[in-house]
Amino acid sequence: MKTSVLFHKGWQAMVMALALSLPAVQAAETAQTAPLFTATTVSGQAFNLADYLGKQPVYLKFWATWCSFCKAEMPHLNAIDERFGDKIKVISVNVGFNDSVAHIQQFFHQEGYEISTIFDANGVITQKYQVVGTPHHILIDKDGNIAYRTFLATDQLDQIIEQWAQQ
Q: Are strands 136-140 and 145-150 parallel, antiparallel or unpaired?
């Protein structure tokens, strides 16, 4: 038991060190197309990224309930969803590693969040987007291109969202 806790804590520390050592990464000059996917949210709603192409940008946040940085950033994500949710589709993607739908629901109930959330039980979406640590934010423009990625909520992330909402 003690070994597994130490391994888990060590794994978290390693992922966070990697995430913090890398600067925010913007998509290359040639647009990187976002991988399409379909999923069901924890509340039972269908989500298909293709439904938003040509219509609305999408903000994906990859996270986990055991990630302290992820939980600390949730008020930010919730505020983005409440303020811009009619112009930008906000989806949180729980990476599914060492987590459960019950943990997500308990956390959201406790904090009063109603953010659309996908539980990536098999890690398929997480792998498609090459997410190596949490939190991980990805902005997809309405043309389906990855416009911005970052490991932590940044001012640049907020600026892009504000610009998109004004268009």
A: antiparallel
CA dist 122 and 105 (Å) reads 18
**79-88 tens-digit pLDDT:** 999 999 999 9
The DSSP secondary structure of 105-131, one letter per residue, reads: HHHHHHHT----EEE-TT-HHHHHTT-
34-50 mean pLDDT: 97
Rounded Cα distance, 90 and 85, in Å: 6
What value does the mean pLDDT take over residues 117-135? Answer: 96
Nearby residues of 84 by Cβ (< 8 Å), 6 or more positions away: 90, 161, 164, 165
Say which residues have a Cβ less than 8 Å from residue 12's Cβ, sequence separation at least 6: 66, 67
pLDDT of residue 31: 63
pTM: predicted TM-score of the whole model, two decimal places: 0.82
Q: What value, to the nearest 5°, has the Cα angle with vertex 73 and ends 70 and 76?
A: 145
Q: Is the dihedral of CA 161, 165, 166, 167 positive or negative?
A: positive
pLDDT at site 35: 97
